[in-house]
């Protein structure tokens, strides 16, 4: 009897991994366009690891996740806007955990704990117009409280929420996306991504999301007039003329103005971005195996964002293992399936983030969403053209 191929879990979300909860919080105020997302592990924590590949990361407590170091399990991961300022959100999560006696016990009293809260930030400063409107400890507390208040296996809000509130992907609005894979052996592997890339999520020649190439179903290409209208719309927003010249098989035209005029273009100078993610599984992984999963999950990011891991990116992937399901005695094949599933889930999470995002326009700039540019069959809304 042949095994069924892997497919998404019931929610197609990070919370398909039993015990994992997700909460979002947004920075309040008219000039704010930023927020924080917290991934909360089950009671007792989870084995964790991290792999940082961007050239401009902003992180906290990532050294604690090195398999050679002391800390064995953690209780939460923080993904936040606000650049390095936003890492203060982790302080609010740390205080919330301490109040509940969750953390590394460092004294004889059960309340004497030090919660280890790894965090990564993305650059969204000034996207809402107010440079100082960024997450702080209160934002982190609000996000972890939202996670704790959600029920087991709760739906995860996607798009322009939490850490994805001010995220931008190339010239389009970015955001939060999540996806899961249920393997034949019963193991679940899932990802949550906050897409804020200096590179693009869209093929400039076709308007297809990069992450859709190689998917089970071939991507539907937008009609050429829709794609051309999307290019012109972005050119109007950026104050650049639409790129001239034909787009052949050799790729799109080059040059700063041409790149700015395309959904697949990006501006490298002065742009600071980051895609940050959490990949979780209910398989029992060692810390070294969890670190390998974090590394291979970056392959999924590279399929969905081009270019990726630039000097102005801080691309960071955390992994969590809740340890519910043991690996077989000969784990190589099972572990390979988990590694491949982590990359696949992260690719799909990026695609879902782009599709779920809502466009924004304000003092910090205009960033239309993919769905607004390409319409119902490519994201759920009528095109702007």
Give a summary of the structure in a few sentences.
This protein is an alpha+beta fold and 385 residues long. The chain has seven helices and 16 strands.
Description:
The chain has 385 residues and is an alpha+beta fold. It has helices at 89-99, 137-149, 224-238, 256-260, 287-304, 332-356, 370-374, and strands at 21-26, 35-40, 47-52, 59-60, 76-80, 104-105, 113-114, 119-121, 168-169, 172-173, 175-182, 188-195, 276-283, 316-325, 360-362, 365-367. A 5-stranded mixed sheet has the order 1-2-5-8-4, with helices on one face. The relative contact order is 0.19.
Spatial shape: globular
Strand order of the largest sheet: 1-2-5-8-4
Task: Give the beta-strand count.
Answer: 16
Order of helices and strands: EEEEEHEEEHEEEEHHEHEHEEH
Mean of all residue-level pLDDT scores:
88
Number of helices: 7
Helix content: 10-25%
What is the C-alpha radius of gyration, as a whole number of Å? 20 Å
The structural class is alpha+beta
Percent of residues in beta strands? 15-25%
């Amino acid at each position: 009897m042949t095994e069924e191929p892997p497919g998404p879990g019931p929610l197609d979300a990070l919370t398909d991994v039993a015990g994992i909860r997700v909460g979002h919080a947004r920075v309040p105020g008219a000039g704010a366009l930023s927020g924080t997302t917290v991934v909360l592990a089950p009671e007792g924590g989870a084995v964790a690891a991290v792999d940082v590949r961007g050239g401009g990361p902003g992180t906290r407590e990532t050294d604690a996740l090195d398999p050679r170091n002391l800390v064995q399990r953690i209780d939460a991961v923080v993904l936040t806007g606000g650049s390095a300022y936003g890492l203060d959100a982790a302080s609010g999560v740390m205080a919330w955990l301490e109040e509940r006696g969750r953390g590394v016990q460092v004294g004889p009293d059960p309340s004497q704990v030090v919660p280890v809260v790894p965090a990564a930030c993305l650059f969204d400063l000034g996207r809402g117009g107010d440079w100082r409107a960024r997450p702080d400890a209160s934002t982190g507390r609000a996000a972890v409280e939202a996670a704790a208040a959600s029920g087991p296996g709760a739906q995860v809000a996607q798009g322009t929420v939490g850490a994805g509130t001010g995220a931008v992907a190339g010239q389009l609005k970015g955001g939060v996306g999540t996806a899961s894979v249920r393997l034949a052996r019963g193991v679940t592997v899932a990802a949550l991504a906050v897409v804020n890339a200096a590179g693009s999520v869209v093929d400039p020649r076709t308007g297809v999301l990069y992450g859709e190439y190689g998917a089970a179903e071939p991507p539907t290409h937008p009609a050429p007039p829709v794609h051309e209208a999307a290019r012109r719309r972005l050119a109007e927003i950026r104050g650049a003329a639409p790129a001239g010249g034909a787009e052949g098989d050799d790729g799109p035209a080059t040059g700063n103005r041409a790149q700015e005029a395309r959904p697949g273009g990006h501006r490298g100078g002065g742009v600071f971005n980051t895609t940050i993610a959490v990949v979780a599984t209910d398989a029992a992984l060692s810390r070294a195996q969890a670190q390998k999963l974090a590394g291979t999950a970056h392959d999924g990011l590279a399929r969905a964002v081009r270019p990726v891991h630039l000097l102005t990116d801080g691309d960071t992937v955390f992994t969590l293992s809740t340890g519910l399901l043991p690996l077989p005695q000969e784990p190589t094949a099972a572990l390979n399936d988990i590694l491949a599933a982590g990359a696949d889930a992260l690719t799909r999470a990026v695609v879902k983030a782009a599709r779920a995002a809502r466009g924004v326009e304000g003092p910090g700039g205009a960033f239309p969403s993919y769905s607004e540019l390409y319409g119902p069959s490519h994201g759920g809304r009528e095109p702007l053209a």
